[in-house]
Protein backbone atom coordinates (compact mmCIF):
# COMPACT_ATOMS: atom_id res chain seq x y z
CA UNK A 1 0.00 0.00 0.00
CA UNK A 2 2.78 2.43 0.96
CA UNK A 3 4.72 1.66 -2.18
CA UNK A 4 1.70 2.14 -4.40
CA UNK A 5 0.62 5.37 -2.75
CA UNK A 6 4.17 6.72 -3.18
CA UNK A 7 4.09 5.84 -6.91
CA UNK A 8 0.64 7.39 -7.23
CA UNK A 9 1.84 10.62 -5.55
CA UNK A 10 4.85 10.70 -7.86
CA UNK A 11 2.59 10.25 -10.89
CA UNK A 12 0.78 13.40 -9.82
CA UNK A 13 3.94 15.47 -9.59
CA UNK A 14 4.70 15.14 -5.87
CA UNK A 15 8.24 14.32 -4.84
CA UNK A 16 8.30 11.62 -2.21
CA UNK A 17 10.94 10.69 0.37
CA UNK A 18 10.23 7.22 1.72
CA UNK A 19 11.41 5.12 4.63
CA UNK A 20 10.63 1.57 5.74
CA UNK A 21 12.19 -0.50 8.51
CA UNK A 22 12.53 -3.19 5.86
CA UNK A 23 15.18 -1.81 3.49
CA UNK A 24 14.13 -4.28 0.77
CA UNK A 25 10.75 -2.57 0.57
CA UNK A 26 12.40 0.78 -0.12
CA UNK A 27 14.54 -0.82 -2.83
CA UNK A 28 11.42 -2.43 -4.29
CA UNK A 29 9.72 0.98 -4.69
CA UNK A 30 12.80 2.41 -6.38
CA UNK A 31 13.08 -0.60 -8.68
CA UNK A 32 9.41 -0.35 -9.68
CA UNK A 33 9.78 3.37 -10.31
CA UNK A 34 12.84 2.73 -12.51
CA UNK A 35 10.95 0.05 -14.44
CA UNK A 36 7.74 2.04 -14.88
CA UNK A 37 9.41 5.34 -15.69
CA UNK A 38 12.90 4.59 -17.06
CA UNK A 39 13.14 8.06 -18.62
CA UNK A 40 12.35 9.97 -15.48
CA UNK A 41 14.59 8.35 -12.89
CA UNK A 42 16.89 11.37 -13.02
CA UNK A 43 14.00 13.46 -11.75
CA UNK A 44 14.28 11.46 -8.51
CA UNK A 45 10.56 11.60 -7.96
CA UNK A 46 10.96 9.06 -5.17
CA UNK A 47 13.94 9.09 -2.83
CA UNK A 48 14.66 6.13 -0.57
CA UNK A 49 15.90 7.05 2.91
CA UNK A 50 17.98 5.02 5.37
CA UNK A 51 16.37 6.47 8.48
CA UNK A 52 13.54 8.70 9.62
CA UNK A 53 15.79 11.68 10.37
CA UNK A 54 17.15 11.64 6.82
CA UNK A 55 13.59 11.45 5.49
CA UNK A 56 12.43 14.40 7.61
CA UNK A 57 15.42 16.50 6.53
CA UNK A 58 14.35 16.12 2.91
CA UNK A 59 10.86 17.54 3.41
CA UNK A 60 9.78 21.15 3.17
CA UNK A 61 7.87 22.70 6.02
CA UNK A 62 5.15 22.07 7.05
CA UNK A 63 6.20 18.49 6.52
CA UNK A 64 3.57 15.93 5.55
CA UNK A 65 4.39 12.43 6.74
CA UNK A 66 2.05 9.76 5.42
CA UNK A 67 2.11 6.69 7.66
CA UNK A 68 1.06 3.30 6.29
CA UNK A 69 1.56 0.72 9.01
CA UNK A 70 -0.83 -1.81 10.59
CA UNK A 71 -3.47 -0.28 12.86
CA UNK A 72 -2.87 -0.27 16.61
CA UNK A 73 0.45 0.01 18.46
CA UNK A 74 2.61 0.37 15.30
CA UNK A 75 1.00 3.79 14.64
CA UNK A 76 2.03 5.07 18.09
CA UNK A 77 5.48 3.54 17.68
CA UNK A 78 5.94 5.49 14.43
CA UNK A 79 4.67 8.68 16.09
CA UNK A 80 7.25 8.28 18.88
CA UNK A 81 10.03 7.69 16.33
CA UNK A 82 8.98 10.79 14.43
CA UNK A 83 8.97 12.89 17.61
CA UNK A 84 12.46 11.64 18.45
CA UNK A 85 13.62 12.46 14.93
CA UNK A 86 12.54 16.08 15.40
CA UNK A 87 8.99 16.80 14.24
CA UNK A 88 7.63 20.32 14.70
CA UNK A 89 4.15 21.36 15.88
CA UNK A 90 3.25 22.57 12.36
CA UNK A 91 4.16 19.22 10.75
CA UNK A 92 1.29 16.92 9.76
CA UNK A 93 1.34 13.18 10.37
CA UNK A 94 -1.32 11.41 8.31
CA UNK A 95 -2.41 7.95 9.45
CA UNK A 96 -3.62 6.06 6.38
CA UNK A 97 -4.23 2.73 8.13
CA UNK A 98 -7.50 1.10 9.15
CA UNK A 99 -7.20 2.67 12.60
CA UNK A 100 -9.98 2.56 15.14
CA UNK A 101 -11.64 5.98 15.24
CA UNK A 102 -11.30 6.22 19.02
CA UNK A 103 -7.52 5.88 18.61
CA UNK A 104 -7.55 8.72 16.08
CA UNK A 105 -9.48 10.95 18.51
CA UNK A 106 -7.02 10.05 21.25
CA UNK A 107 -3.93 10.55 19.07
CA UNK A 108 -5.02 13.96 17.80
CA UNK A 109 -5.21 15.23 21.34
CA UNK A 110 -2.20 13.26 22.69
CA UNK A 111 0.24 14.59 20.06
CA UNK A 112 -1.15 18.10 19.62
CA UNK A 113 1.90 19.81 21.18
CA UNK A 114 4.35 17.85 19.02
CA UNK A 115 2.63 17.72 15.61
CA UNK A 116 -0.78 17.65 13.97
CA UNK A 117 -2.16 14.15 13.81
CA UNK A 118 -4.58 13.70 10.89
CA UNK A 119 -6.54 10.59 9.89
CA UNK A 120 -7.11 9.53 6.30
CA UNK A 121 -8.65 6.13 5.77
CA UNK A 122 -7.89 4.54 2.42
CA UNK A 123 -10.03 2.08 0.54
CA UNK A 124 -9.34 0.26 -2.68
CA UNK A 125 -6.59 -2.20 -1.85
CA UNK A 126 -3.24 -2.13 -3.58
CA UNK A 127 -4.57 -1.27 -7.03
CA UNK A 128 -6.60 1.57 -5.54
CA UNK A 129 -3.56 2.99 -3.77
CA UNK A 130 -1.61 2.88 -7.04
CA UNK A 131 -4.20 4.26 -9.46
CA UNK A 132 -6.79 6.04 -7.32
CA UNK A 133 -8.23 5.08 -3.95
CA UNK A 134 -11.24 6.45 -2.13
CA UNK A 135 -9.85 8.61 0.66
CA UNK A 136 -11.74 9.40 3.86
CA UNK A 137 -9.97 12.24 5.67
CA UNK A 138 -10.76 13.43 9.19
CA UNK A 139 -8.80 15.83 11.37
CA UNK A 140 -8.27 19.53 11.93
CA UNK A 141 -9.64 21.76 9.19
CA UNK A 142 -6.37 23.72 8.71
CA UNK A 143 -4.42 20.57 7.98
CA UNK A 144 -7.11 19.58 5.51
CA UNK A 145 -6.63 22.80 3.55
CA UNK A 146 -2.98 21.87 3.17
CA UNK A 147 -3.64 18.22 2.28
CA UNK A 148 -6.67 18.76 0.06
CA UNK A 149 -4.86 19.35 -3.29
CA UNK A 150 -2.66 16.30 -2.72
CA UNK A 151 -5.52 13.97 -1.76
CA UNK A 152 -7.74 15.26 -4.55
CA UNK A 153 -4.94 14.60 -7.04
CA UNK A 154 -4.28 11.00 -6.05
CA UNK A 155 -7.87 9.93 -5.30
CA UNK A 156 -9.99 7.93 -7.75
CA UNK A 157 -12.12 10.05 -10.10
CA UNK A 158 -15.68 9.64 -11.31
CA UNK A 159 -17.27 11.16 -14.41
CA UNK A 160 -20.33 13.44 -14.52
CA UNK A 161 -22.61 10.38 -14.24
CA UNK A 162 -20.80 9.15 -11.15
CA UNK A 163 -19.03 6.32 -13.00
CA UNK A 164 -15.42 5.56 -12.06
CA UNK A 165 -12.82 6.66 -14.61
CA UNK A 166 -10.51 3.66 -14.61
CA UNK A 167 -6.80 3.68 -15.31
CA UNK A 168 -4.07 1.09 -14.92
CA UNK A 169 -1.29 2.90 -16.75
CA UNK A 170 1.66 4.03 -14.64
CA UNK A 171 2.67 7.58 -15.37
CA UNK A 172 -0.67 8.46 -16.94
CA UNK A 173 -2.92 9.32 -14.04
CA UNK A 174 -6.54 10.40 -14.43
CA UNK A 175 -6.64 14.16 -13.97
CA UNK A 176 -10.20 15.00 -14.92
CA UNK A 177 -13.38 14.06 -13.05
CA UNK A 178 -14.67 14.44 -9.51
CA UNK A 179 -12.21 13.17 -6.89
CA UNK A 180 -13.35 10.45 -4.49
CA UNK A 181 -12.31 12.28 -1.37
CA UNK A 182 -13.93 14.91 0.83
CA UNK A 183 -13.25 16.31 4.28
CA UNK A 184 -15.47 14.34 6.64
CA UNK A 185 -14.95 16.22 9.89
CA UNK A 186 -12.63 16.53 12.87
CA UNK A 187 -10.56 13.87 14.64
CA UNK A 188 -11.98 10.36 14.17
CA UNK A 189 -14.68 11.15 11.55
CA UNK A 190 -12.70 9.78 8.58
CA UNK A 191 -11.74 6.56 10.29
CA UNK A 192 -15.28 6.10 11.60
CA UNK A 193 -16.73 6.45 8.09
CA UNK A 194 -14.14 3.99 6.76
CA UNK A 195 -15.05 1.54 9.51
CA UNK A 196 -18.70 1.71 8.45
CA UNK A 197 -17.57 1.32 4.82
CA UNK A 198 -15.94 -1.92 5.89
CA UNK A 199 -19.01 -3.03 7.86
CA UNK A 200 -21.04 -2.52 4.68
CA UNK A 201 -18.28 -4.29 2.72
CA UNK A 202 -18.67 -7.33 5.03
CA UNK A 203 -22.45 -7.29 4.42
CA UNK A 204 -22.10 -6.81 0.66
CA UNK A 205 -19.63 -9.71 0.41
CA UNK A 206 -21.66 -12.05 2.62
CA UNK A 207 -24.86 -11.31 0.65
CA UNK A 208 -23.11 -12.14 -2.63
CA UNK A 209 -21.80 -15.36 -1.05
CA UNK A 210 -25.32 -16.27 0.10
CA UNK A 211 -26.71 -15.68 -3.40
CA UNK A 212 -23.94 -17.93 -4.78
CA UNK A 213 -24.67 -20.59 -2.14
CA UNK A 214 -28.39 -20.60 -2.98
CA UNK A 215 -27.77 -20.81 -6.73
CA UNK A 216 -25.35 -23.64 -6.24
CA UNK A 217 -27.29 -25.63 -3.64
CA UNK A 218 -30.84 -25.08 -4.89
CA UNK A 219 -30.22 -25.24 -8.62
CA UNK A 220 -26.97 -27.17 -8.81
CA UNK A 221 -25.32 -24.45 -10.89
CA UNK A 222 -21.58 -24.77 -11.47
CA UNK A 223 -19.35 -21.89 -10.29
CA UNK A 224 -18.65 -20.75 -13.85
CA UNK A 225 -22.39 -20.60 -14.63
CA UNK A 226 -22.92 -18.47 -11.55
CA UNK A 227 -19.97 -16.33 -12.63
CA UNK A 228 -21.66 -15.74 -16.00
CA UNK A 229 -24.93 -14.91 -14.24
CA UNK A 230 -23.15 -12.43 -11.96
CA UNK A 231 -21.65 -10.83 -15.08
CA UNK A 232 -25.21 -10.29 -16.29
CA UNK A 233 -26.36 -8.97 -12.94
CA UNK A 234 -23.42 -6.58 -13.01
CA UNK A 235 -25.01 -4.85 -16.01
CA UNK A 236 -28.09 -3.90 -13.96
CA UNK A 237 -28.92 -2.36 -10.58
CA UNK A 238 -26.44 -4.67 -8.85
CA UNK A 239 -23.53 -3.18 -10.79
CA UNK A 240 -20.60 -3.09 -8.37
CA UNK A 241 -16.95 -3.94 -8.02
CA UNK A 242 -17.72 -6.81 -5.63
CA UNK A 243 -20.19 -8.47 -8.04
CA UNK A 244 -17.68 -7.92 -10.86
CA UNK A 245 -14.79 -9.63 -9.02
CA UNK A 246 -17.05 -12.44 -7.79
CA UNK A 247 -18.03 -13.11 -11.43
CA UNK A 248 -14.36 -13.28 -12.35
CA UNK A 249 -13.39 -15.48 -9.37
CA UNK A 250 -16.14 -18.01 -10.12
CA UNK A 251 -14.93 -18.49 -13.69
CA UNK A 252 -11.36 -19.42 -12.71
CA UNK A 253 -10.00 -22.96 -12.61
CA UNK A 254 -7.26 -24.40 -10.42
CA UNK A 255 -4.07 -24.93 -12.43
CA UNK A 256 -3.14 -27.98 -10.37
CA UNK A 257 -6.38 -29.96 -10.34
CA UNK A 258 -8.51 -28.37 -13.05
CA UNK A 259 -11.32 -27.95 -10.52
CA UNK A 260 -13.12 -24.61 -10.15
CA UNK A 261 -10.63 -22.54 -8.15
CA UNK A 262 -13.28 -21.55 -5.61
CA UNK A 263 -13.77 -25.23 -4.76
CA UNK A 264 -10.09 -25.56 -3.83
CA UNK A 265 -10.25 -22.69 -1.33
CA UNK A 266 -10.97 -23.59 2.32
CA UNK A 267 -14.34 -22.26 3.43
CA UNK A 268 -13.00 -20.51 6.53
CA UNK A 269 -13.12 -16.69 6.38
CA UNK A 270 -10.62 -14.35 8.00
CA UNK A 271 -11.21 -10.88 9.36
CA UNK A 272 -9.00 -8.09 10.59
CA UNK A 273 -11.64 -6.51 12.79
CA UNK A 274 -13.24 -3.50 11.11
CA UNK A 275 -16.56 -5.29 10.51
CA UNK A 276 -16.58 -6.39 14.13
CA UNK A 277 -15.89 -2.82 15.28
CA UNK A 278 -18.85 -1.63 13.19
CA UNK A 279 -21.10 -4.19 14.83
CA UNK A 280 -19.82 -3.27 18.31
CA UNK A 281 -20.29 0.45 17.65
CA UNK A 282 -23.87 -0.18 16.45
CA UNK A 283 -24.60 -2.26 19.55
CA UNK A 284 -23.08 0.37 21.84
CA UNK A 285 -25.24 3.12 20.34
CA UNK A 286 -28.35 0.94 20.08
CA UNK A 287 -28.53 1.16 16.30
CA UNK A 288 -30.04 -1.88 14.52
CA UNK A 289 -27.30 -3.07 12.15
CA UNK A 290 -28.12 -6.76 12.18
CA UNK A 291 -27.09 -7.49 8.59
CA UNK A 292 -23.60 -6.19 9.26
CA UNK A 293 -23.43 -8.16 12.53
CA UNK A 294 -24.71 -11.33 10.85
CA UNK A 295 -21.97 -10.95 8.25
CA UNK A 296 -19.39 -10.84 11.02
CA UNK A 297 -20.95 -13.90 12.70
CA UNK A 298 -21.10 -15.75 9.38
CA UNK A 299 -17.32 -15.38 9.08
CA UNK A 300 -16.95 -16.57 12.69
CA UNK A 301 -19.17 -19.62 12.08
CA UNK A 302 -17.20 -20.46 8.95
CA UNK A 303 -14.02 -20.81 10.99
CA UNK A 304 -15.48 -23.66 13.10
CA UNK A 305 -14.34 -26.06 10.41
CA UNK A 306 -13.77 -29.13 12.58
CA UNK A 307 -16.98 -28.64 14.57
CA UNK A 308 -19.00 -28.13 11.41
CA UNK A 309 -17.59 -31.30 9.98
CA UNK A 310 -18.64 -33.23 13.10
CA UNK A 311 -22.07 -31.56 13.21
CA UNK A 312 -22.73 -32.24 9.54
CA UNK A 313 -23.09 -35.96 10.23
CA UNK A 314 -24.63 -35.52 13.68
CA UNK A 315 -27.34 -32.92 13.10
CA UNK A 316 -30.00 -33.55 10.53
CA UNK A 317 -32.24 -31.11 8.72
CA UNK A 318 -35.93 -31.76 8.27
CA UNK A 319 -36.01 -30.53 4.71
CA UNK A 320 -39.11 -29.88 2.68
CA UNK A 321 -37.79 -29.50 -0.83
CA UNK A 322 -40.46 -29.07 -3.47
CA UNK A 323 -40.21 -28.65 -7.26
CA UNK A 324 -38.82 -25.27 -8.21
CA UNK A 325 -38.80 -23.24 -11.37
CA UNK A 326 -35.13 -22.38 -11.99
CA UNK A 327 -35.80 -19.11 -13.85
CA UNK A 328 -38.09 -17.88 -11.09
CA UNK A 329 -35.54 -18.81 -8.44
CA UNK A 330 -32.73 -16.98 -10.26
CA UNK A 331 -34.94 -13.88 -10.51
CA UNK A 332 -35.89 -14.14 -6.83
CA UNK A 333 -32.24 -14.38 -5.75
CA UNK A 334 -31.23 -11.40 -7.88
CA UNK A 335 -34.03 -9.34 -6.34
CA UNK A 336 -33.21 -10.65 -2.88
CA UNK A 337 -29.62 -9.53 -3.26
CA UNK A 338 -30.68 -6.05 -4.32
CA UNK A 339 -33.23 -5.64 -1.49
CA UNK A 340 -30.83 -6.95 1.14
CA UNK A 341 -28.14 -4.61 -0.17
CA UNK A 342 -30.47 -1.64 0.19
CA UNK A 343 -31.20 -2.68 3.79
CA UNK A 344 -27.48 -3.11 4.58
CA UNK A 345 -26.65 0.38 3.30
CA UNK A 346 -29.67 1.77 5.16
CA UNK A 347 -28.18 0.33 8.35
CA UNK A 348 -24.70 1.71 7.62
CA UNK A 349 -25.99 5.23 6.98
CA UNK A 350 -28.30 5.05 10.00
CA UNK A 351 -25.28 4.11 12.09
CA UNK A 352 -23.31 7.10 10.82
CA UNK A 353 -26.25 9.37 11.69
CA UNK A 354 -26.13 8.11 15.26
CA UNK A 355 -22.35 8.51 15.40
CA UNK A 356 -22.45 12.12 14.27
CA UNK A 357 -24.76 12.94 17.17
CA UNK A 358 -22.61 10.94 19.59
CA UNK A 359 -19.32 12.55 18.53
CA UNK A 360 -20.57 15.99 17.54
CA UNK A 361 -19.61 15.58 13.90
CA UNK A 362 -21.45 16.99 10.93
CA UNK A 363 -21.15 14.16 8.47
CA UNK A 364 -21.99 15.00 4.91
CA UNK A 365 -23.93 11.96 3.70
CA UNK A 366 -24.10 13.19 0.12
CA UNK A 367 -20.33 13.54 0.16
CA UNK A 368 -19.83 10.10 1.74
CA UNK A 369 -21.99 8.40 -0.89
CA UNK A 370 -20.15 10.31 -3.60
CA UNK A 371 -16.63 9.43 -2.46
CA UNK A 372 -17.65 5.76 -2.34
CA UNK A 373 -18.65 5.81 -6.04
CA UNK A 374 -15.09 5.19 -7.17
CA UNK A 375 -11.84 3.72 -5.87
CA UNK A 376 -13.20 1.85 -2.86
CA UNK A 377 -14.14 -1.80 -2.43
CA UNK A 378 -17.89 -1.12 -2.19
CA UNK A 379 -17.96 1.11 -5.29
CA UNK A 380 -21.23 0.60 -7.10
CA UNK A 381 -23.50 2.58 -9.38
CA UNK A 382 -26.09 2.25 -6.61
CA UNK A 383 -24.13 4.83 -4.58
CA UNK A 384 -25.22 7.56 -6.98
CA UNK A 385 -28.82 6.76 -5.97
CA UNK A 386 -27.85 7.13 -2.32
CA UNK A 387 -26.23 10.50 -3.04
CA UNK A 388 -29.42 11.53 -4.90
CA UNK A 389 -31.56 10.48 -1.93
CA UNK A 390 -29.59 12.69 0.47
CA UNK A 391 -29.57 15.53 -2.09
CA UNK A 392 -33.38 15.39 -2.09
CA UNK A 393 -33.56 15.32 1.69
CA UNK A 394 -30.52 16.31 3.74
CA UNK A 395 -32.23 15.11 6.91
CA UNK A 396 -33.21 11.69 5.54
CA UNK A 397 -33.48 9.40 8.58
CA UNK A 398 -33.23 6.13 6.71
CA UNK A 399 -32.64 5.23 3.06
CA UNK A 400 -35.80 3.12 3.16
CA UNK A 401 -37.78 6.36 3.54
CA UNK A 402 -36.52 7.67 0.20
CA UNK A 403 -38.99 7.22 -2.70
CA UNK A 404 -36.49 5.52 -5.00
CA UNK A 405 -35.48 2.89 -2.45
CA UNK A 406 -39.02 2.46 -1.07
CA UNK A 407 -40.25 1.77 -4.61
CA UNK A 408 -37.40 -0.66 -5.25
CA UNK A 409 -38.28 -2.54 -2.05
CA UNK A 410 -41.98 -2.55 -2.99
CA UNK A 411 -41.20 -3.91 -6.43
CA UNK A 412 -38.55 -6.49 -5.54
CA UNK A 413 -39.16 -7.58 -1.94
CA UNK A 414 -41.04 -10.71 -3.02
CA UNK A 415 -37.70 -12.01 -4.27
CA UNK A 416 -36.20 -11.56 -0.80
CA UNK A 417 -39.17 -13.28 0.83
CA UNK A 418 -39.03 -16.18 -1.66
CA UNK A 419 -35.28 -16.58 -1.27
CA UNK A 420 -35.58 -16.68 2.52
CA UNK A 421 -38.43 -19.23 2.37
CA UNK A 422 -36.52 -21.42 -0.08
CA UNK A 423 -33.38 -21.20 2.03
CA UNK A 424 -35.29 -22.12 5.19
CA UNK A 425 -37.15 -24.98 3.51
CA UNK A 426 -34.01 -26.43 2.05
CA UNK A 427 -31.69 -25.89 5.02
CA UNK A 428 -29.29 -23.49 3.31
CA UNK A 429 -27.85 -20.93 5.72
CA UNK A 430 -28.46 -17.37 4.52
CA UNK A 431 -28.21 -15.36 7.75
CA UNK A 432 -27.78 -11.97 6.13
CA UNK A 433 -30.78 -12.46 3.82
CA UNK A 434 -32.88 -13.47 6.86
CA UNK A 435 -31.61 -10.51 8.80
CA UNK A 436 -32.33 -8.07 5.95
CA UNK A 437 -35.92 -9.25 5.69
CA UNK A 438 -36.41 -9.08 9.47
CA UNK A 439 -34.97 -5.55 9.49
CA UNK A 440 -37.23 -4.44 6.65
CA UNK A 441 -40.34 -5.93 8.26
CA UNK A 442 -39.38 -4.58 11.68
CA UNK A 443 -38.67 -1.09 10.38
CA UNK A 444 -41.98 -0.88 8.50
CA UNK A 445 -44.03 -2.15 11.50
CA UNK A 446 -46.03 0.43 13.35
CA UNK A 447 -46.57 -2.07 16.13
CA UNK A 448 -43.93 -4.41 17.53
CA UNK A 449 -44.18 -6.79 20.50
CA UNK A 450 -41.92 -4.56 22.61
CA UNK A 451 -44.99 -3.72 24.73
CA UNK A 452 -44.92 -7.27 26.09
CA UNK A 453 -41.18 -6.99 26.53
CA UNK A 454 -41.58 -3.82 28.60
CA UNK A 455 -44.20 -5.57 30.71
CA UNK A 456 -41.82 -8.49 31.28
CA UNK A 457 -39.05 -6.10 32.37
CA UNK A 458 -41.44 -4.33 34.69
CA UNK A 459 -42.72 -7.66 36.06
CA UNK A 460 -39.39 -9.04 37.20
CA UNK A 461 -37.34 -5.89 37.67
CA UNK A 462 -39.73 -2.94 38.20
CA UNK A 463 -38.09 -1.30 35.18
CA UNK A 464 -41.29 0.70 34.45
CA UNK A 465 -43.00 1.37 31.13
CA UNK A 466 -44.68 4.21 29.26
CA UNK A 467 -48.43 4.13 28.51
CA UNK A 468 -49.81 4.88 25.07
CA UNK A 469 -52.42 7.19 26.66
CA UNK A 470 -49.97 9.16 28.85
CA UNK A 471 -47.42 11.88 28.08
CA UNK A 472 -44.17 10.61 26.50
CA UNK A 473 -41.59 10.09 29.22
CA UNK A 474 -44.12 9.44 31.99
CA UNK A 475 -43.24 6.16 33.68
CA UNK A 476 -45.55 3.59 35.24
CA UNK A 477 -45.09 0.43 37.27
CA UNK A 478 -47.62 -2.33 37.84
CA UNK A 479 -47.38 -4.21 41.14
CA UNK A 480 -47.72 -7.52 39.35
CA UNK A 481 -47.67 -9.70 42.48
CA UNK A 482 -50.29 -7.73 44.43
CA UNK A 483 -54.01 -8.27 44.55
CA UNK A 484 -55.74 -6.30 41.79
CA UNK A 485 -52.34 -5.51 40.12
CA UNK A 486 -52.38 -1.81 41.04
CA UNK A 487 -50.48 0.56 38.76
CA UNK A 488 -48.51 3.53 40.09
CA UNK A 489 -46.99 6.48 38.30
CA UNK A 490 -43.28 6.59 38.98
CA UNK A 491 -41.58 9.90 39.62
C1 LIG B 1 -10.60 -1.53 1.62
C2 LIG B 1 -10.66 -2.81 2.41
C3 LIG B 1 -9.42 -3.02 3.17
C4 LIG B 1 -9.25 -4.42 3.68
C5 LIG B 1 -9.98 -4.62 4.96
C6 LIG B 1 -10.79 -5.86 5.04
O1 LIG B 1 -11.50 -0.74 1.78
O2 LIG B 1 -9.66 -1.37 0.85
O3 LIG B 1 -11.73 -2.75 3.30
O4 LIG B 1 -9.36 -2.04 4.15
O5 LIG B 1 -9.47 -5.36 2.75
O6 LIG B 1 -8.98 -4.58 5.92
O7 LIG B 1 -10.21 -6.70 5.91
P1 LIG B 1 -10.83 -7.99 6.52
O8 LIG B 1 -11.79 -8.61 5.55
O9 LIG B 1 -9.62 -8.83 6.70
O10 LIG B 1 -11.43 -7.62 7.82
UniProtKB/TrEMBL annotation:
Record InterPro entries: 6-PGluconate_DH-like_C_sf (IPR008927), 6PGD_dom2 (IPR013328), 6PGDH_C (IPR006114), 6PGDH_Gnd/GntZ (IPR006113), 6PGDH_NADP-bd (IPR006115), 6PGdom_BS (IPR006184), NAD(P)-bd_dom_sf (IPR036291), Pgluconate_DH (IPR006183)
Q: What is its EC number?
A: 1.1.1.44
| Amino-acid positions noted as binding substrate in the UniProt annotation, renumbered to this chain | 98, 123-125, 197-198, 202, 272, 299, 457, 463
Q: Name one GO biological process term.
A: pentose-phosphate shunt
Q: Which UniProt keywords apply?
A: Gluconate utilization, NADP, Oxidoreductase, Pentose shunt
Q: Which reaction does it catalyse?
A: 6-phospho-D-gluconate + NADP(+) = D-ribulose 5-phosphate + CO2 + NADPH
Q: Where is the 6-phosphogluconate dehydrogenase C-terminal domain?
A: 190-481
Q: Which domain of life is it from?
A: Bacteria
What is the similarity comment for this entry? Answer: Belongs to the 6-phosphogluconate dehydrogenase family.
Function description: Catalyzes the oxidative decarboxylation of 6-phosphogluconate to ribulose 5-phosphate and CO(2), with concomitant reduction of NADP to NADPH.
Q: What is this protein called?
A: 6-phosphogluconate dehydrogenase, decarboxylating
- Source species: Marinomonas fungiae
Amino acid sequence: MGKNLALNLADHGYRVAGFDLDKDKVQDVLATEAKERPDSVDEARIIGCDNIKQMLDMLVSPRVIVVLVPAGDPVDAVCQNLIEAGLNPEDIVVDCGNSQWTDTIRRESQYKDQFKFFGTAVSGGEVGARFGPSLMPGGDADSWKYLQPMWEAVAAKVDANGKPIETRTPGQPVKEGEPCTAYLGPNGAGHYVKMVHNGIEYADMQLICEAYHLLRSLLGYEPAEIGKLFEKWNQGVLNSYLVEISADILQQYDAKTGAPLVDMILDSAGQKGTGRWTSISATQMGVPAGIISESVYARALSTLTAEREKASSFLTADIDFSEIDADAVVQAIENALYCAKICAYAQGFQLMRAAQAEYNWELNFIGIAKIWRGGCIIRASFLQKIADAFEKNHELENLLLDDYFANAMAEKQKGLRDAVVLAAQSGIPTPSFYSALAYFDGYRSEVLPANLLQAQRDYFGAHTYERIDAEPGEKFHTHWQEEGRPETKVK
